[in-house]
Amino acid sequence: MHTTSAPDRVMLATAAVNVKSSSGEYLPARALLDSGSQVNFMTEDLAQKLRTRHQGVTLNVIGIGNANQKVRTKLNAFVKSRVNNYEFSVEFWIMRSISANNPDRNVNITGWKIPKNINLADPEFHKSQKIDLLLGAETFFELLAIGQIRKGPNHPTLQKTLLGWVVSGKYTTNQCRPPQFTSTLCQTEDELSTIDSVVQRFWALEELPSEANSRTLTPEQTECETFFVRTTQVLPSGRLQVRLPFKTDRKLLGHSYETASRRFQALERRTLKDPELRKMYLDFMNEYIELGHMSPTNNKIPSEPHYFIPHQCVLRPESTTTKLRVVFDASSRTSSQIALNEILMVGPTIQEDLYSTLLRFRLHKFALTADITKMYRQVAINDYDKRFQLILYRESPIDPIQKYCLNTVTYGTTPAPFLAIRCLKQLSDIYSDQYPLGCRVIRDEFYVDDMLSGADNIKELLQIQEEVITILKGGGFSLAKWHSNYPKLFQNEEGEKSLEADETCTVMESLGPRKKTQ
Question: CA 250, CA 344: separation in Å to the nearest integer?
């Protein structure tokens, strides 16, 4: 078979949802998630099926579906996730059509290796189908959840939302030409389809992640690694300070204050309607300030290149610790139509893939897990680059809006995962002679901020715990949520607890190096 490379294409995020009609019945619909749109839209066809009362208003809409339209009606509707019980109310403007089919043609996703254990918001995201709803920026950022999977430069990104995992971003396809040969073997289409399906399943079962492929760096990834080594500094406190790895001229960034201001005021209006949400949001932001992770500026817009990052709060009801997180949107475009994330390098994948990490973890007799508290925010950003991490905030709507800068690596910027994880590796290099066992665990048995380790004897288990805590503490990182199946590893006021398959795991929010005991 002959293949020719096709240019990069872009997959837009879609979700299959249910919309509540006037009779209380839920109708299936397909939604496009668009952070660039300021309002939400619904097609006339779906609106008629809902039989919901419309409100007569006029809105001029330019460029939706490559056509200029006047929208004269809007309605409120309840949208429900198909993967959980999450439901929300949205105001929609009604249009004849929102866009052409998305994607514009069926996409061959063979080889994309989408994890089987995640719930896709739209299981048929790769099939060309019509769009019934468009969820704009304010709704879009309310739906975001913590969780992202990057499959490589030729595949789109998987982002977790309250509607399920969405697939979006650039991808590369291969155009295939039919093979030029003849054969005397004749089979029906159904037979060929069955054989093809069986062979594909066999290959999927037999395939293991390729270490050779995962370790091959692109020129950009090599440059990003070189830049990190050249510019990263160890501060007197032991924390690491990094620079943002730009791949193009910072002057490409246009004005960003107006968008950030509009988005902040929308967020403020939303939180003021919900006192509990407002309190959680203010607590989160004030903690950011108190920890020194963000600080006020001189309140002037810099004359040199800079960037204001819009932010949004995301609820995570299932979390045992932080119920609300603030997410920063460094993909928001400036007046030049260039976003900060577009001019930053991504960086290479450093850690082992999850498959290998979990496989190794299951081999231990005694398990030991924990995660790093606020990992990204323990890495400092060089003062020069803080002007690209400006945000807007005020505690009360009667106060003037204040300009702040984020002082640490920020979740939502393209290189954030690389920078934070690369700092862990840097610490393992620094302490490799002093604590070889702990450094090996940090290097090989972490997946992002989660430690998945263990040992076959108690002495080594205790040594791993003590060394990892000491190494990470030297860089300003702390570990929490300790879990183990060894009942005597942790003790609290309630006595000893063991980690069983049908029990709540042993958790300690903070833990220092423990003394070795018999």
Answer: 9
